[in-house]
Amino acid sequence: MGSVTYFNSASLDGYIAGPDGRWDWATPDAEVHAFVNDLLAAARTHLYGRKVYDVMKVWDDLPLDDLSPAEREFALQWRDADKIVYSKTLAAVTTRRTELRADFDPVAVRQMADAAAGPIAIGGGQLASVAARAGVLDEVHVVIAPAHIGGGVRFLDAGLRLDLELIGERRFGNGFVYLGYRVLRGNGETPFGWSATTARS
Length: 201
Description:
By secondary structure, the chain is α/β, with parallel strands linked by helices.
């Protein structure tokens, strides 16, 4: 049984992009990038909203010879994964192994996760917040960058309450810190999630 898992980088004050839309302050070095590759390797399906898809689709056709080893590994992982994009305004998708859907259906996502061998990865805080409110978000993973940016796009929506159980942590040489959590349900039970063995290494 798989899990529905949200991963992103964030500033110390909880933003994934600044007021100007930039996230260069969160650019990973080789150590962090390799760790993220390992963390996401088991996710064979990625879920996106339109804005995050527009950012991520560059990985579909970047020349591999121009990339660092960690970037090349991520590009190959991304190309080999199935993608579902949720948008009512996007007319078509242009990347391989990608499906366009108008609405996020939490029942269908739960069924997909239950049938999967590994995690279903959500990209983007807005979609992750929708999944959390629908009760289908199982895990939250964040790499915190050593930056306080004062505003912008939130890691998760304001007003969203989640009780969490720590399952992994790691400190990197460049000052970045990883934290991984299971989402606790109302009765204190945790859903099935992926192994935190890599996260704790």
